[in-house]
Amino acid sequence: MENSYQFDNWIFKPDTGALISGEKETSLEPKVARLLEYLILNQNRVITREELIEKVWENRIVSSDPINRCISIIRQTLNPEDKSAYIETVPKKGYLSHFTVVSADELKTGFTITRTNLAVVSVVILLVFVFTFQWVKDPSPDYTTPSIAVLPFSDLSETKSNQFLAQGMSDTVIDMLSRVKGLDVTARTSSFAIANQNLTVSQIASQLGIEHMLEGSIQVNGNDIRVLTRLINANTQKEIWSQSFDRQLQNVFSVQDDIAAAVVAALKGTILPSNYNNYEPSFEVYELVLKGRVEMNKMTSTGLETAQDLFRQAIRLDSQYPLPHILLAKVLKAQFDTDSYTHDYQTERKLQFLDEVEHLLDTALKLDPNSGEARNLNASMLIAKGKTQQAGIELERAIELEPNNADAIGQYATWLQFQNRLDEAVIQARKAASLDPTSSKIQQILAQNLWISGRSEEAISIIEADIVNNPTSAKNNGLLARWSLQLGRPGKAMLYAIKEKELDPNNPDRIWGVCLIHYQLWDRAKAQQCTQALLAKFPNYYEAKKWSFQFGEKPNIEDGIDFIYKQIELFPRVVYFRLQAAHWLVFENRPEEALTLLEPNFPELFANEPTVTDWSLWAVDLISQAWTQLSEDEKATTLLKAGLAHIAKTRKLQGGGFSSGIEDVRFHILLGEHSQAMAKLKMAIDNHWSMYSMWFHKHPVFEPFVQDPQFLSLVEQHKAFMQSQRQWYQRQLKNDAALSVD
């Protein structure tokens, strides 16, 4: 007989996933249904995430992100207005569910509970409890580490013209509290975002995973300012502390100090760390910085330009104030960076920013050596220079100074990833995400770390959830485009690439993403048409020009190599350009040049016992081919076997870094192991391998197979798959007229 449960006006049938309320029926996916049943059967006690992973996911995941997704689906389905109605989040612990469930089948038979029945049932339950209970009490939530979110202060002035000051005060209090060890402080991105959603105190606490909230308001009257603040226990919704501060505007800094000190005293009974820079500029300068920060946080082209101007004005008026130096460096670095689907391309225009960023950070750290934000930015500059180990030291120092700096922790996670310390990287990325749960940037860092660790399901679920929360994030669609390719879904990748371009239509990187998918789909005509249109609009766009040398009307690899060499001269530390040049040099049988280009960046691959990561697989491929061309067979064999050992340990269809997914096929060919190579290639093509597969059969490494009937059959099979994918995405486009591939 089919099980069912009834609570309130809902009937739930776990066997089918049906959730019924009146005439409305929702079909839950199996994992969501299994989770709901487990919560029903284990209500009124704290259920940890670890328990859910063990009992519901059968230890198949190591992340809480799929749990978050399923919990969110249940809450949204049952009561979107009050997401804690049935399932409460216990901060830092797990979940507490309460459904008041009665078996629906028993209701149908007319079963009623009399006093006698109740007594009998009570005795039975007591006996079962006595003889089966392990006498290990469920631990109560451990709140030894207090947590807090500072919501944006509101402007109560009649003209509402001082919102920048209210936000700036919130920012400063967050910055000061973030330096307190043993206190978890939600990042500004998340606390400001959630404040605009009209949520209750308990709902905010549930979504941010915090126990305390600080609210505040300002009221400016002439040269006087009144600041009202109150600290709330989010669990009891009771006020812990409140205070009113009356100051003159030029003394606004003392208010921020007093607020932060009072909060720390209320939560911990300690004082603020002494490493906080207490430089006090004039209010005129401070006002410029606050207005610039508001513009910077918009993260739009116009906002960044306006912020630049405001920070420069502040520096001209007061060159001893460290904050505008740090924030201007941050703006310039944001303008330098790109977050496209393709890669982070450095251009001459962007290069102009770097020297100034370096000068600003040097000045800022002299003025305030204890700025974690400045050290975090400095670490990113060190990485750009190839000084990886120094960058790691700088990041650790930044986190030591500001233990709640989510950006620094997130960048540290990325740094760990490049050191191949993947488990540590995921831990740090999760920590950053817990401090800043609504930040797209942080969610993307977490997802990318999970992806390269082989946890594709979790990575995709994080980005899909973030698209719902941040629908204007182009990079989210770019990530899903790349990952769809690596999972063998090139048609779906095209749809994501188109969406990425639509969200940022004037960015050549986004446009190139669409062109590149045309190439990936083996549609050379449309790819060339797309590339030509891009070059007509952006004639100096590097990647489109580079591909034109290989796939244009008149291919010319020799000139293409010279073109890439010029790029290397401009950006000698960019590994990607060196890999591209080495790829074509090997193709043109110029192995010595290829090795000379790659050795400075991949010394570990030239060692007697080479160390291989997903990020270095492309280099392994190229170095091995170069050594084979030079008859350095022993060196090639050692490196190829190291590459195969890495792939055997970590391989999934989706490779990380610059991996295409069939490096093992080429490695076996170079080792002369043709039967293994053919078996691996067949497996890849049967599983719709798609990443950089276009015209793979024309690569020189496959020369031993050019007359092999099985190989030729696999090539035709792959061509047919790509044609079906082109037809599929074109049908999808017809169903959505808003999308365009122009």
Give an overview of the whole structure.
The structure is a single chain. The protein starts with a strand and ends in an 8-residue tail after the last helix. The chain is built from 32 helices and 14 strands. It is globular. Mean pLDDT is 81; it is low at 104-143, 339-346 and 738-742. The strands form 3 sheets. Strands 9, 10, 11, 12, 13 and 14 form a 6-stranded mixed β-sheet that branches. It has a 5-stranded antiparallel β-sheet with strand order 4-3-2-1-8. The longest helix has 26 residues, at 709-734. Among the domains are: 5-132, Winged helix-like DNA-binding domain superfamily/Winged helix DNA-binding domain (Arc Repressor Mutant, subunit A, Orthogonal Bundle), CATH 1.10.10; 147-276, 3-Layer(aba) Sandwich (Rossmann fold); 575-706, Serine Threonine Protein Phosphatase 5, Tetratricopeptide repeat, CATH 1.25.40.10. With 742 residues, it is an alpha+beta fold.
Task: Write the SSE topology.
Blueprint lengths: L4 E3 L2 E4 L4 E4 L2 E4 L2 H12 L4 E3 H7 L9 H14 L8 E4 L3 E4 L4 E2 H5 L6 H18 L14 E4 L3 E2 L7 H15 L6 E2 L2 H8 L5 H8 L3 E10 L2 E10 L4 E11 L3 H16 L15 H14 L4 H17 L4 H15 L11 H20 L4 H13 L3 H14 L4 H13 L3 H14 L4 H13 L3 H14 L4 H13 L3 H14 L4 H13 L3 H14 L4 H10 L5 H14 L4 H13 L3 H8 L18 H13 L3 H18 L12 H8 L3 H13 L22 H26 L8
Parallel strand pairs: 9-11, 9-12, 10-12
Antiparallel strand pairs: 1-2, 1-8, 2-3, 3-4, 5-7, 6-7, 12-13, 13-14
What is CATH's topology name of the domain at 575-706? Serine Threonine Protein Phosphatase 5, Tetratricopeptide repeat
Query: What Rg do the Cα atoms give?
Result: 29 Å
- Morphology: globular
Structural class determined from secondary elements: alpha+beta
**Portion in beta strands:** 5-15%
**CATH C-level label of the domain at 575-706:** Mainly Alpha
Question: In whole angstroms, how far apart are the ends?
Answer: 56 Å
The helical percent reads 55-70%
Total helices: the number is: 32
Mean of residue pLDDT values:
81
